[in-house]
């Protein structure tokens, strides 16, 4: 009964783990790796509080065990110094010598310790646009993340760490000074941002990080950064678990990525991943959060990092990663290959659709079989040889190119082999994944708020589960629609600001505008121009789901200023539409 006797008093409350990085659980095991489960490692928000005092249970305190009269002397406390332990148990100091960023070498195992002095903490103040009320901005908030110094007096971090930035500051390891930083370039697709600091004092005693080659499977990696849980630098170790084409959540694109089993937490964003030689092999940027998965983190590898850096150095701006503007189908079925006129030794993928706005639309056609890209043969499952014992999606070959580069493509059309030289361009979508830091566009007439649809807009309207909550029509266009012209936009009625002139239309929300007075609406600027120059008696808007909105032109234009004043809206259209 002594062991089963229940204590009097309330049980101590256990702190519940934060759900900020958790995704909705998925019951089937096959759905563990899905885009909804992959989360960007968020920057550590300044609003996070760490409670250091645990709740004390009420009731009689526990009895402490008695100590012997002559206890054994305790070992001396360890000396706290920046070091890491290697496999043979030897502790190696970091940053020894006159240079702050020098590498220390283990004399026994000849193992190099990363130059952690080049790792900095990045502080950012964000002011996000309000996509639901596009004439406003949200309340500003601050965050912290990680970064590291590279050659040319530059600092690399993640793009989502400085998204919608108002002010960026960096702090060196062991310093109490925060230096103002300037954002040079933001690579949305690859989730990398480049900063610089104008103050010469910041660069004193700091040696830039050197990049290493793409690691192999089971290679050891060390992730360094400033994650949640403390203010000082943190080091976690692991190995490379997988190398493949990954979905980059922030950029909504697919590029080469590394999967590691080192712990990556909030605040690790932008921190470097070092190999055993002390060279940087990647940047920590996102992790997989699922009830059936543990310690799955993702790192941006050096080929993607070097592409971003060289793109900036070549063009003095970020131009993006090009794509082959096609949708393709696997050719693994033998009957399908025979029906398409393929010989037994031929392999490739079938083109389903070609982007009408892409340069390759002039030469490639639906049902063409892509046999090779730049001389590299493509398998029936869409993969190409990568390294010994490894294969990877052929989109990796495309991502190694730059916007404006040309590539040789061999296709099979009607049992005839054709060779084309195609100019590659960056990808544009009908519903863009980002506004690239620009505020949203809007136009208001008679209380009708017109705006364009983007992924941030859907997230603002329907939350992080917009892929399940948004209207089916919009989701279908998000996933499957292609641009028919370079300036095409998806224009919707975001909401209706209630007024006497729009009685009966109050329930129209997020519905696409198809035409005005019989003329198709290609983009928001065109819609604003047609309304402003309309001399007809009525404004007739054709909407999705066969809805129509009819307003008297003169009355609608006359009522707009009063509606704007009522809702404290500064202008009837955004600044970009006035230009």
UniProtKB/TrEMBL annotation:
<dbReference type="GO" id="GO:0006508">
    <property type="term" value="P:proteolysis"/>
</dbReference>
<feature type="compositionally biased region" description="Pro residues">
    <location>
        <begin position="71"/>
        <end position="80"/>
    </location>
</feature>
<feature type="region of interest" description="Disordered">
    <location>
        <begin position="1"/>
        <end position="81"/>
    </location>
</feature>
<protein>
    <recommendedName>
        <fullName>Protease Do-like PDZ domain-containing protein</fullName>
    </recommendedName>
</protein>
<keyword id="KW-0720">Serine protease</keyword>
<dbReference type="InterPro" id="IPR001940">
    <property type="entry name" value="Peptidase_S1C"/>
</dbReference>
<feature type="compositionally biased region" description="Basic residues">
    <location>
        <begin position="1"/>
        <end position="13"/>
    </location>
</feature>
<dbReference type="InterPro" id="IPR009003">
    <property type="entry name" value="Peptidase_S1_PA"/>
</dbReference>
<feature type="domain" description="Protease Do-like PDZ">
    <location>
        <begin position="431"/>
        <end position="576"/>
    </location>
</feature>
<comment type="similarity">
    <text>Belongs to the peptidase S1C family.</text>
</comment>
<feature type="compositionally biased region" description="Low complexity">
    <location>
        <begin position="16"/>
        <end position="36"/>
    </location>
</feature>
<feature type="compositionally biased region" description="Polar residues">
    <location>
        <begin position="42"/>
        <end position="55"/>
    </location>
</feature>
<dbReference type="GO" id="GO:0004252">
    <property type="term" value="F:serine-type endopeptidase activity"/>
</dbReference>
<dbReference type="InterPro" id="IPR046449">
    <property type="entry name" value="DEGP_PDZ_sf"/>
</dbReference>
<dbReference type="InterPro" id="IPR041517">
    <property type="entry name" value="DEGP_PDZ"/>
</dbReference>
<keyword id="KW-0645">Protease</keyword>
<dbReference type="InterPro" id="IPR036034">
    <property type="entry name" value="PDZ_sf"/>
</dbReference>
<dbReference type="Pfam" id="PF17815">
    <property type="entry name" value="PDZ_3"/>
</dbReference>
<keyword id="KW-0378">Hydrolase</keyword>
<dbReference type="Pfam" id="PF13365">
    <property type="entry name" value="Trypsin_2"/>
</dbReference>
<dbReference type="InterPro" id="IPR043504">
    <property type="entry name" value="Peptidase_S1_PA_chymotrypsin"/>
</dbReference>
């Amino acid at each position: 009964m002594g062991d089963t006797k229940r204590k009097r008093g309330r049980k101590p409350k256990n702190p519940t783990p934060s759900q900020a990085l958790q995704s909705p659980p998925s019951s089937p095991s096959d759905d563990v790796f899905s885009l909804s489960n992959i989360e960007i490692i968020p920057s550590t928000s300044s609003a996070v509080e760490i409670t250091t005092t645990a709740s004390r249970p009420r009731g009689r305190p526990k009895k402490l065990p008695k100590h012997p009269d002559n206890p054994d002397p305790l070992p001396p406390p360890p000396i706290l110094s920046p070091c890491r332990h290697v496999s043979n148990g030897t502790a190696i100091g970091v940053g020894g010598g006159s240079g702050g960023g020098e590498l220390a070498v283990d004399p026994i195992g000849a193992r190099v310790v990363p130059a952690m002095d080049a790792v900095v903490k990045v502080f950012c103040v964000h002011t996000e646009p309000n996509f639901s009320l596009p004439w406003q901005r949200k309340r500003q908030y601050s965050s912290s993340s990680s970064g590291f110094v590279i050659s040319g007096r530059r600092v690399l971090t993640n793009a989502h760490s400085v998204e919608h930035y108002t002010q960026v500051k960096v702090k060196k390891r062991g310093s109490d000074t925060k230096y103002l930083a300037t954002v040079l370039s933001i690579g949305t697709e690859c989730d990398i941002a480049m900063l610089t600091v104008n103050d010469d004092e910041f660069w004193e005693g700091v040696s830039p990080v050197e990049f290493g080659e793409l690691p192999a499977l089971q290679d050891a990696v060390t992730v360094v950064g400033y994650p949640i849980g403390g203010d000082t630098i943190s080091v976690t170790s692991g190995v490379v678990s997988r190398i493949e084409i990954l979905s980059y959540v922030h950029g909504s694109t697919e590029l080469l990525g590394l999967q590691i089993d080192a712990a990556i937490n909030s605040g690790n964003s932008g921190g470097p991943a070092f190999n055993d030689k002390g060279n940087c092999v990647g940047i920590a940027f996102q992790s997989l959060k699922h009830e059936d998965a543990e310690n799955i983190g993702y790192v941006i590898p050096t080929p993607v990092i070097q592409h971003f850096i060289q793109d900036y150095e070549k063009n003095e701006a970020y131009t993006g990663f090009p794509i082959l503007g096609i949708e393709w189908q696997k050719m693994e079925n033998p009957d399908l290959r025979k029906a398409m006129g393929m010989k037994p030794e031929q392999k490739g993928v079938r083109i389903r659709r070609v982007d009408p706005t892409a340069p390759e639309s002039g030469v490639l056609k639906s049902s063409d079989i892509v046999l090779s890209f730049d001389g590299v043969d493509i398998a029936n499952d869409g993969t190409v040889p990568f390294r010994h014992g490894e294969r990877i999606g052929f989109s990796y070959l495309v991502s190694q190119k730059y916007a404006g580069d040309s590539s040789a493509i061999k296709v099979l059309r009607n049992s005839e082999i054709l060779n084309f030289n195609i100019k590659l361009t960056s990808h544009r979508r009908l519903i863009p994944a980002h506004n690239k830091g620009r505020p949203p566009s809007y136009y208001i007439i008679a209380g009708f708020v017109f705006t364009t649809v983007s992924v941030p807009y859907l997230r603002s309207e329907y939350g992080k589960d917009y892929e399940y909550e948004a209207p089916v029509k919009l989701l279908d266009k998000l996933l499957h629609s292609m641009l028919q012209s370079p300036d095409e936009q998806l224009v919707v009625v975001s909401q209706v600001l209630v007024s006497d002139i729009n009685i009966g239309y109050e329930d129209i929300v997020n519905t696409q505008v198809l035409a005005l007075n019989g003329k198709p609406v290609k983009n928001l600027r065109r819609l604003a121009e047609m309304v402003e120059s309309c001399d007809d008696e009525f404004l007739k808007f054709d909407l999705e789901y066969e809805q129509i909105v009819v307003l008297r032109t003169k009355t609608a234009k006359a009522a707009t200023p009063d509606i704007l004043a009522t809702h404290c809206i500064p202008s009837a259209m955004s600044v970009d539409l006035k230009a």
